[in-house]
Amino acid sequence: MLHRSWRRAATAAVAALLAATSIAACSDDPSDAKDLSENRAGAMADYGIGKQFKASEPVSFSILYNNHPNYPLRDDWLFWKELKSRANVTLTPVAVPLSDYEQKRSLLIGAGDAPLIIPKTYPAQEDAYVSSGAILPVSDYLDLMPNLQDKISKWNLKPEIDGRRQEDGKFYLLPGLHEKPWQDYSVAIRTDILDELNLTVPKTWDELYTVLKAMKAKYPDVYPFSDRWSKPNPAGNLLNLLAVSYGLQGAGWNFQHTSWDANAKKFVYTGATEQYKQMLQYLNKLVSEKLLDPESFTQTDDQARQKLANGKSFVISANAQAVVNDYRPDLAKTNPKATISKIPLPIGPAGEVNPASRLENGVMISSKARESKNFVAMMQFIDWLWYSDAGQEFAKWGVEGTTFVRDAAGKPKLAPDVNVIGLNPKAPKHLQKDFGFYNGVFAYGGKPELVQGFFAPEEQEFQKVLNARPPVAVPPPHPLNDEEREQASLWETPLKDAVYQATLQFALGQRNLSEWDAYVAELKGKNMDAYLTMVNKAYDRYQKDHG
Amino acid sequence: MVTVDATDTATGSGLPTPARPRGIRPSRGYRVFQACNAIVLTIVVVVTLYPFVNVVARSLSDEQYIIGGKVNLVPLGFNLDTYRLVLNDSLFWTNYRNTLFYTVVATAISIVLTTCYAYVLSKKHLRGRTALIGIAVFTMFFTGGLIPNYVLVTSLGMKNTVWAIAVPNAINVFNLLVMKAFFESLPTDLEEAAAVDGLNTYGILLRIVLPLSKAIVATMVLFYAVAFWNSWFAAFLYMDQQELWPVTVYLRNLIAGATGAENVGVIAEADEVQADATIKAVTIVLTTLPILAVYPFVQRYFVRGVMLGAVKG
Amino acid sequence: MTSETLRPPPPAPPGVPAEATVPAPRAPRRRRTWRQALRRDWQLYSLAVLPLLFFLVFRYLPMIGNVIAFRRFKPGGSIFGEYWVGLRYFRMFLTDPTFWDVFTNTLVLGTLTLLFCFPLPIVLALLLNEVRARRLRRFVQSVSYLPHFLSIVIVAAMVMQLTSVDGTVNQIVQATGGDAVPFLQRAEWFRTIYVSSEVWQTVGWGTILYLAALTTVDDDLYEAARIDGANRWRQTWHVTLPGIRPTMVTLLILNIGNFMAVGFEKILLLYNPLTYPTADVLSTYLFRMGFGSSNFSYAAAIGLFEAVIGLTLVLTANLIARRTVGTSLW
User: Fold this and answer.
1) What is the ipTM of this complex?
2) Nearest CA to CA, how far is A413 from chain C (Å)?
3) Which residues of C47-85 are buried (b: 16+ CB within 10 A; e: fewer)?
4) Which of A74, A99, A300 to mutate to test the interface with B (most CBs of B within 10 A)?
5) Mean pLDDT confidence for B40-49
């Protein structure tokens, strides 16, 4: 009896589950994709560049919301009120803690329960969802987004956008766009020690080595360079900075299996290149001469900060916020005479490059949105808020006269009673916490003036130096198909583990660099060649089909 | 037979004192053992207490001393500013209330269901008992994936309610089997006598078995309450509004958000989390203390020999 | 309850294993039919209805989703997968050499954890039981279970602080004339570090169940033992330990079944590529494969594999326990 009822319950439940999750198939028929006559409710007939989007009837869209602990979601934010009055749009957020945003996004999409607008998606994160049809191929609807199209062509972003195209030639993510690359990460140096030793700010990695050597000579008991950002990827920032300076695609927390070899016109395996070997030789030199703290690769950020604060190290990885929020306040309390600054990214054998990508995190659209009668209005709204100059300024600066004012030249400036990232520390109100602007979900990218709006003069100087350097070349598209991606995911982890383990062993001197060939052979044993063949095949295929 | 160990049962609470005939001096070896025992337990206390004192000291210290790595057992730069800061956050209080509410409801449901089933399983004569145990044990190892569970809870309309937290985790098989083992070790003749007196099964469970099982019920309350108090995942999955989150999700967002991001290198400028060390410490203290306070209440049920006296007396 | 309570002789000597107890008077001599059983025990069965419903709906129903171990699952597609692929995902991990490495690590770490974390709570509970000063005993008890409440993030940070080159452990090493060791960069040290921190975290909490079990040991048995001239040690050996044996065996069997579930989060925070050779376990390997975001099928296949191992272990342990000490889960 028990058995039978269990089976009946199971059958019923399966049926219920299936019904609950069935997603209408997304048709590939282009004529169907273009027939939007049923989906124009609330849309503007004459929407275009420079136009304020305003829905012709009140509309409401669900949105996945990345809830930041520093400015938790509030219903009474001016941001929501202004969206209502300016665009006639109400957003209904599904709040997800920032700490586990990606997991919840994956679950909601997997369960067919995702909101229509899915922001905070970094390039390549959309790949996994393409083949099931759960995500809208947004490239089919670019004509609804004039501002986006305009920015892509005006800022020459075609190579970057092409890099996001899938095997079918479409792209599925509306990425954030930067006119200029914005490289935030570099290393910071105790400038008072530089002065004390009569040294200048090092411009290249080799000069940095000389500086570290001089520091060591004066202070033999310290490791002059003790790095942070080693969890979960050891030396995540340092390895990446070095890799791009040696002309590779990336390493560390920006681990890239392949790098594009422009001369040979094919992809090579980053961790097996000659450049990677040289970079390890450099690191090994720093460690063996006791210039780089071996614990750099395993310690926590707090440990690294403590060493810097207590004068046990003078150099550390940095971005603009870390200098202002961590290092300077720490040092001010332990050693008021100390000064520290972020130095322009040291130059390596690859010469002057600005390695930052011009694509930011962006927005995915659920395929379900396509069936909504407000679909066109939604795309226009997204185009206005995320891609128009006015929308971007609104999301970042807020409302003129309330949260910001303009100077004589028309440049926006924070209102005196509004604070953000410590610019008006005495102000009673906070741009993010109290008004909901400069919110990571809505405000990113854009023109350099906008991106650098809140930067201190020091950081603007830093950006000026880096913007003078040519942007790094974008590798050509090489989208894998569904089966290949599954195969790749099984090869990639053992390969990455092997590269990472050897990287640390070589750097720390636990393994001698004369064993390099043996290491490359190990990689081959872990399907490196098959992996490269697959990637290069995908490149050829894309060239043939869409090139 | 008269109980010799009068002192302990009379005082009623605390652990069983090892019975020792009065007037007989303990042997020398036993005294040496007692001394060693005291030393071992002192070490246990020191080693386990240190991190807590440290966290409390941090929560009361000025940030600068923490960064300097100077705060150990005594707060330096004593101040309550951070407590004031956290306690002034209305979201913290909302989430705190949620945690209390969820814990109470979920623990109540769990105790009822677990006790019922454990009692049934402890009856050796029951037909189908092995199958009933097997049904439970099997689920310790074979579970449904995340997505099916999510779809189930959503289609039952439990999302954004306390039921999404309480019901899907109502029975922990580990606790169930421990409780069953306890029930099995209870004497059967008392129940039989009660049955002869005309009590039905429900009456026996409520009036005879449960009074004998205070120790295990208290332990189960502790286990379930602590587990629900500390749990964050169910709430994270099923609560779409931050006003519904328990304080664990609040805390996790504060701490793990700063340390757990896989791609720190590419996160956007507005997204960086910079939680001060003191805020972390304060939140830990505030969320841990209440559940720590439960234990003393549980402890009083750990009295040996309580069962027979309770029935006959 | 008073001190003058008269007590009947203990109904079943706790020393006698539960399973071997003489059948209760009303226990069946031969198997009853279902109809008879239902008529006689319907009240008992009725107590099981709600729990059974719980298991069926919230445990067994979602298990249907495990078919994706045999089907191709696409995130956002049907939750039951798109098409059959047979044993493809099982073949995938069974032929992956890294899988076997991490599987071995999982077994080793699980075994070590079991070896240390199972017996130590019993020892501590017995030691506590011997403390005569009531205040001290309650204090020690309350303190020892504190680590259970610390979040893994904090425990991991403490471990890293302690084992760093200028940390406490190395200060002791250097004071005794040794050289500082970067423990966390040495694969051979990882197991020691992990198991020690596990012991520290779980030992106090683990005593709670034994302390509860100790309440069922009847004083009369101690009395009888004393009259026979047994000293404390022999009382512990012949009365206390047999008294808590059902709890011990239950916990041992459950721990054996669970020992593949080593602490994912802690390992994730403590390991690094240099210690992968000893530290990398199944869950961390799967995590790095990014299964959370894409390959649910692969994860489901490994999950089934683990479940079969766990179930086999529990059944075996249960059988051995029944044959040797006569106590078992069922």
Assistant:
1) 0.82
2) 40
3) bbebbbebbbbbbbbbbbbbbbbbbbbbbbbbbbbbeeb
4) A99
5) 86
